[in-house]
Design goal:
The complex is a heterodimer.
Chain A: E1 3-10, H1 16-47, E2 52-57, E3 72-75, E4 79-81, E5 101-103, H2 106-118, E6 124-126, H3 133-143, E7 151-156, H4 166-182, E8 186-192, H5 211-223, H6 234-239, H7 245-255, E9 260-267, E10 272-278
Parallel strand pairs in A: 1-8, 2-7, 2-8, 3-6
Antiparallel strand pairs in A: 1-10, 3-7, 4-5, 9-10
Chain B: H1 4-15, H2 17-25, H3 27-30, H4 38-46, H5 49-54, H6 59-64, H7 74-77, E1 83-84, E2 97-98, H8 100-104
Antiparallel strand pairs in B: 1-2
Helix pairs in contact in B: 1-2
Classes of the chains: A alpha/beta, B mainly alpha.
Chain lengths: 280, 109
């Protein structure tokens, strides 16, 4: 019988140079602290010997622009490539030093997809979508030079309205838990992104966060009180810059009713950096 | 729903180095065939990323187009993560920065 053996969530631009440029010395200091905390989460991840790592993240209009924007998409196949960008800038530059190709856990990806469709989740699938910093920055920070297990990347449409609801994302996470439970595998799952940044996706509001909202989310996750989070609206997430919390909602569905332990929370003008692990 | 034409153009400027080079050299000619309103076209020609964003251009595209985007906001926002001053010009118009502290004091908006 399979089991989710690790659950974590973290911000997903994990690069000291990026934060040095964006927020100066304080930015560098805080992201280094966050990365250190995530690396220690990786120690615990490795101890549990997972057969696969599910990564729930969002596309930044790199993989699905604009032929199709799926609400939730399972990346299937045997391998996945990282997004390539000539003269990469900003968050895209984080990818430059990373391996170009990663193994996928084909059987688990197919199981999540096939059983999902059978059970009422109209999931999209892709054999070709590349993955960007939202997937690879956390994976590489979590594991460093250690072996990266086969991945199951899952895309959630966090940015392009209309997004899936928080409740639907949670329900999809519950589906993942059921699939894993019926499988023979030990599985880790991480959600990436956030916390609050880029409210309303307006350039004029880059540099604002909503720390009160973030602390409310964290308080509920620490207590294992997931029910109130199901009613989060797209409007709330948009105004507070919490679009990527939809990824976290999938994770919460997969590990509920486990309680969160905050490994790092660091406020910056640009974003609130976070690293959270669940007691499973 | 967002403006498809704006975002399609932003996407192709990011992913197509030839289009990007033509746009940098002669923006009006490079986007002559794009299905844009006059206001949108003017914003692209001016390189006014803030305006393009306000008209529906997705933030992550606006921020990450090589040599055209806002370079992650570092040029426009300064190291303290400060705010753009309302009405400040876009990249080609150069930058203006105000810190969160001054903004809280009601100096902006």
């Amino acid at each position: 019988m399979g089991e989710i053996v690790f659950g974590g969530a973290m911000s997903h631009v994990l690069d000291p140079d990026y934060y040095q440029a964006a927020c100066g010395d304080l930015g560098r200091q805080k992201v280094v602290e966050a990365m250190d905390a995530i690396g220690k989460m990786g120690d615990r991840f490795v101890e549990r010997k997972p057969d696969a790592l599910i990564v729930v993240a969002d596309d930044h209009m790199n993989a699905f622009s604009f032929n199709c924007v799926p609400a939730i998409c399972v990346r299937i196949g045997k391998k996945v490539q990282r997004m390539m960008q000539d003269d990469a800038e900003a968050f895209d530059k984080v990818l430059d030093h990373m391996a170009p190709e990663y193994a996928l856990h084909e059987e688990l990806g197919n199981s999540i997809l096939e059983q999902g469709v059978k059970n009422g989740f109209d999931l999209a699938l892709s054999w070709e979508a590349p993955i960007d910093h939202a997937f690879l920055s956390p994976v590489n920070t979590l594991l460093g030079r250690r072996t990266i297990p086969p991945l199951v990347p899952i895309f959630v449409n966090a940015f392009i309205a209309p997004q899936p609801t928080a409740r639907r994302c949670f329900q999809f996470g519950q589906h993942i838990a059921r699939v894993v439970a019926k499988s023979p595998w030990a599985v880790g799952i991480i959600a990436t992104g956030g916390l609050s940044h880029f409210p309303e996706l307006l350039l004029g509001r880059v540099g604002e966060t909503d720390t009160v909202f973030d602390r409310k989310l964290i308080h509920l996750m620490e207590r294992g009180e997931h029910e109130p989070l199901l009613d989060l609206t797209a409007d709330e997430l948009h105004k507070t810059g919490s679009h990527e919390f939809l990824n976290w909602m999938v994770l919460l569905g997969a590990i509920t009713p486990a309680r969160a332990e905050v490994r790092y929370f660091g406020e910056l003008p640009r974003i609130n950096l976070a690293a959270v692990e669940w007691r499973l | 729903m967002s403006r498809y034409a704006i975002n399609s153009l932003l996407y192709h400027l990011k992913k197509d180095p030839n289009l990007r080079a033509r746009f940098i050299k002669q923006p009006s000619a490079a986007i002559a065939d794009a299905d844009l309103t006059d206001e949108e076209r003017a914003a692209f020609i001016a390189g006014d990323m803030r305006k393009i964003n306000e008209l529906g251009g997705y933030l992550h595209l606006v921020m990450s187009i090589p040599k055209i985007g806002t370079h992650g906001g570092t040029e426009l926002l300064g190291h303290d993560g400060g705010q753009l001053i309302e009405g400040a010009p876009g990249r080609r118009g150069r930058k203006a920065v105000r810190s969160p502290r001054s903004r809280r004091k009601g100096h902006t908006r």
